[in-house]
Model the fold of this input.
Amino acid sequence: MDILRFATAGSVDDGKSTLIGRLLFDSKAIFEDQLEAVERTSRDRGTEYTDLSLLTDGLRAEREQGITIDVAYRYFATPRRKFIIADTPGHIQYTRNMVTGASTADLAIILIDARKGVLEQSRRHAFLTSLLRVPHLVLAVNKMDLVDYSEERFEEIREEFTAFASKLNVADLTFIPISALNGDNVVSRSENMPWYNGSSLLHHLENVHIASDRNLVDVRFPVQYVIRPQKATDHAFHDYRGYAGQVAGGVLKPGDEVVHLPSGLATRIASIDTFDGPVEEAFPPMSVTLRFEDDIDISRGDMIARPNNQPQVSQDLEAMVCWMSDGARLAPRSKLAIKHTTRTARALVRDLHYRLDVNTLHRDEEATSLGLNEIGRVSLRVTQPLFVDDYARNRLTGGFILVDEATNGTVGAGMIIEAH
Amino acid sequence: MLQRDYTTSQLDVLEAEAIHIMREVAAEFERPCLLFSGGKDSIVMLRIAEKAFWPAAIPFPLMHVDTGHNFDEVIEFRDRRAAELGARLIVASVQDSIDAGRVTEETGRRASRNRLQTTTLLDAIEEHEFDAVFGGARRDEEKARAKERVFSFRDDFGQWDPKNQRPELWNLYNARIRKGEHIRVFPLSNWTELDVWDYIRREGIEIPSIYFSHTRKVFERDGMLLPDSEVVRRGDDEPLFEAVVRYRTVGDMTCTGAVQSTAATVEEIIEEIAATRITERGATRADDRSSEAAMEDRKREGYF
Done:
């Protein structure tokens, strides 16, 4: 059994909570006491139906205001897969939450109300999904029961959305007509839409191929922690020196020739160690410890790659940045802390090239700063070299966060376009 | 684990993520500690810590907030496990907080030291100047927890502000704090109860005996089976009876209920959990029943 992480975007009006509620309920991930609590609250508030959104709206402030503020993580499993849902609110002011939820997602589900068709909000969600390079996108056309299960309506929406998506980087786009309320095409194929030949949503989630979404080509191992037992658990390890980290790309094997950055020195992997014994291969997302044949000075923040396949080593980055702070704005000359893989440095915003309108994709080159939930293209100068790849090639070595040094808040998420 | 397309099992993915989180903390903080209660989640967390730093010893101490109302079997297990690992175990005692006048014991039949733990915990964090504190909480446990970050920022007062959380993207965690503030770190955030048990089975990890079926004198309160113990106040209208039970969660005796069960092995427990229709906290924790936002309110105050 493997794991599929997916993000859902849409508002309560689109039936998102109902859809999640149904997936959880039909996979037995909602328990009786949770359902009773939701029914009790629905009754207390005078709601006539059992409001499944109460399952996901966890915080008091959210219940009081009837809105979803934050990303909620939900879990369910079928015999085929374990699923982690990052349930993100759909409203524009929560762009940062959608970006957060999408950053680790293998797949995104965007809900569209069949009666309303493709809205500004749907386009925004699709754009963010593509910006964050979520490999698989499902457009769930919901409330098909309210349009008489019309194939024509479904095709209209499909055509309109496909035309828009052609402007984006969407690798795998699937359209599924559903009724979350009635369960049509959610868990099993619906008899109400004989014209639809595709999978049910759950069947698609269970079978979509994600193993090759990881980058298994470019060896990237950001050194996270140096293991040098002061007080070894065993005297045999007295002289042990290992470099621990999580593989961010490629497949590593003992004997492989590798290069250490920033030194540029080449060596070979002597052993790939784990608590459970040495392993013959390491690949994403494994956390392992490498030992090398040569004694090189290696510390946290360094990178291991292949001599003939190295990341860019650069202090000048071009990136798309989503600004997440409601305090200070991002503007040229802003100074921030940057965390990229295991390396932290300081960054200076040299230029803001444009602000992108996430609804129309229009580039506003007159913009002088970015505010909360705004996205723009920036040039950064970093105090130390970073070992980077284009975000499109590797999300782990192409993504970074920006931290406000005064408040210590995480204020920006960046995706590297190119390095110089 | 390894197939031709490099598919990784869910337990391997979760373990790799948790190891990454632990190493991140060890690298970025000066004084981390790991909350170890002897319960199943903290036992799994401790195994992850062993794996993350092997062959070196775990580079931080363990801490237990002891209400003085814990099960003997669990306390014995806690001490033995810490000794086996050669780990330093700090016991922060709620009784000491009461004796020092920091908190006042609740009175009445339902008196519990559950809420008092928060003060003891925060005092200990301050006393030892811990800047990162690992907890075994999982997001599937409770809806306030479903929205909590892996690195959860706490201010000078140990408070959690759910509306002002730091966005968490990819596997990048923001570890920056000022002196006096700290981060609660939850490496098992993405694990479910079943994942924890699957992992215990796969790793062959020892757990305290009260997780397995045994005969115990209990009484019923609010549909929960509470143990016969001098620390649990029982009314005359709450008769004792013998039942075949086990514990699904391990906490303070005054607010942790047993479930009727004949599951005597980890395999049988997994079968039982896979079939159950009640969450672990709903089945066994009186502390979550006081109001709909009971956990959220306690977390805001600085609870685990």
Chain A has a mean pLDDT of 90. The first helix of chain A runs from residue 16 to 26. The first strand of chain A starts at residue 2 and ends at 10.
